[in-house]
Amino acid sequence: MKTTKNMLRIHLRSIRLCSGLAVLLLLGPLSANAKPTVQDFMSRPTVRDMELSPDGTHLAMVIETAGQRYVTVRDITKPDMPLVGNLSNEFIRPNFLYWGNDDRLLVALSVPYNMNRVMKDKARDAGFDINDYPTVSRMVALNKDMSDMVVLLEDERALRRNISLSRVTNFIPTDNDHVLIDAYRKERRTQFRVNINTGDATRVAVGGRRTYRFVNDDDGAPRYRFDYLRRSKAIVIYEFESEDKWKKVEKIYLIRDYLYAIDTTGLVALNGDNLVYRKINDETGYYELIMVDSDTGERESLVSLPDQDVRGVLFSSRTDGIVGYTTEEDYIRHHYFDADLQEIYDGMSKQMGSYNFSLKGYADDYGTALARSWGMDDPLSYHLWHQKKGELQFLAHAYMKLAESDLATQAFATYKARDGLSIRSYLLLPDNYVKGEPHPTIVLPHGGPHARSRVEFSTLAQFLATRGYVVIEPNFRGSSGYGRDFEEAGYQQWGGTMQDDLTDAVEFLVREGVADPERICIVGGSYGGYAALMGAIKTPELFQCAISMNGVTHLPDMLKYDMKELVDKEDWQEVLFDRVGHPDTDRDRLEANSPALHADRIQIPIMLIAGTEDQIVPYAQARRMRKALKKADVEFEFIRLENTGHNPLYYRKDVETVLPAIEQFLARALSVN
């Protein structure tokens, strides 16, 4: 790692200061242009990050324009928000920001692993693209006018093999000169107390091989650590006793979904000295917040709602202390324990419209707040709230290429399944949509299956809708977020009532005059890909085509694969057998609902898309389906994505392959110009 050492000491200090550079900040209302292209959907964000200083006087942001990134700081207390400082470099790219205190800014940077090679290639290659080179992530601290820069953790020799040294774990309210940063030392997550003026660090806690987070008190002392069991989808909580000694407190199953990784942030916090975590209430079936008394170890319910989940905890803007919680029906909403914070949030809510939004930061005196909003037709936007004026000021769209495009409009519908169960669904309506006029339609079931569709931007859904299709995303039974009874109604219903709910969605749209019954396709990934194939098998009269991306095709084989992957054997019943079925005792039902065993019943064109390195649904599942389709002489297309995992739209090279192929396949199958 000698190259990395030299790179940090020489090149990080050579970042250019550009005080006179004019970079656009406030982006006014945009007029829609033509439908977005594939390249538009792959475009990087114009605004990569934005942070409000603790005193509410300055706004820092990372902007990317013309292939280069800049850090800018503006004084928001003055008219036109004058520029205080800029930071840029041709090769070292800022990613995101933190305010260490009112005056010191922390900047996370992507630094080329081999700077000398990058500089040589730049000089001789006309097609040079800095994004093609591997990087490590490091952090610098500097004043808001971009002076007095230091590299954090630079002198910790044992950390130089870390790919990332740029995530602030926590701030310390009683010490504005230090922050907490995690790194891997001897293959274990380790926490350091780092001086933001000098860059020097002191080790404070050592975790285990599966540790993903520490929680600290207001003095920066470690209190708990959390280990994530990936396959079990569980968190094990440990209480701190000494630097490398911990006591097990609790094991929490996070989500009843064995196919998808999940976001483990926002699930555990501190309330004073007491631990707070999110867990399912056995009686209501909804997630609630449990508090553990630090002295007695007794557990009590801190927040429990009778008819909806507590989605997560809300942290203080600077600590691991809990200040509220989030809920989600159609939109994510925040609920604060502090009346003044809730007043800010409620004031913004009245002006935000039909979008999710969250407070990204707020001034210590609550006079100003920075918010992010997002929805099905907006990946991300930033807003500034002025409490005295009660005014919400739009700042910028994060993705300008998409903001300038003519995106589809979000809509909502609730329909009744054949047994009377209400199914909430989200729709995207193309720009040529006319009420009462049937349109070509895509049914897009989510993965999981015990996950859910949300009011959030989906590249695939928007791409399909901007090609002229109505897109419906049903939260069929088995989806999470609607209580235990609703979720458990989908247990062991692969190909059963969960599939019937998708059939009922189609029939609902046809009855309402929304869907053209002669031009409907079912498209999905993972469980959604499975459902697409089962739709072609069970209800061939409903669909004119089906597209499966990394879909499960043989249930008994899939279960055996997951049994090998689960670390804790006791999780087999909890995570697999109860939800899908037993590979031996339920084999007849599992085989009856395995698409690869019934390809001879398919009468419509099929597209299979699969990544060779998928660790969730192994590539063998797609290979088996391809063989079955070929044997049954079914019309199909097969796209093999080399070195690609479970998400076929993760890498740019795959997006460039997959989206045009889907567009062309649908146009042929549904006769859409």
Description:
The chain is of the alpha+beta class and 673 residues long. Helix content is 21%, strand content 35%. The chain is built from 14 helices and 36 strands. The strands form eight sheets. Strands 29-30-32-31-33-34-35-36 form an eight-stranded mixed β-sheet, with helices on both faces. It has a five-stranded antiparallel β-sheet with strand order 1-5-4-3-2, with no helix packed on it. A four-stranded antiparallel β-sheet has the order 6-7-8-9. Helix 9 (527-538) links the parallel strand 33 and strand 34. It starts with a helix and ends with a helix.
State the oligomer.
single chain
Radius of gyration, CA atoms, in whole angstroms:
26 Å
Q: What portion of residues belong to β-strands?
A: 35-45%
User: Can you tell me the overall shape?
Assistant: globular
Arithmetic mean of pLDDT: 87
Query: How many helix segments?
Result: 14
Q: What's the helical proportion of residues?
A: 10-25%
Strand order of the largest sheet: 29-30-32-31-33-34-35-36
Work out the number of β strands: 36
The major β-sheet equals: 8 strands, mixed
Q: Which structural category fits the helices and strands?
A: alpha+beta
Parts with pLDDT < 50 across at least 5 consecutive residues: 1-29, 256-262
Q: State the separation between the terminal residues, measured CA to CA.
A: 55 Å
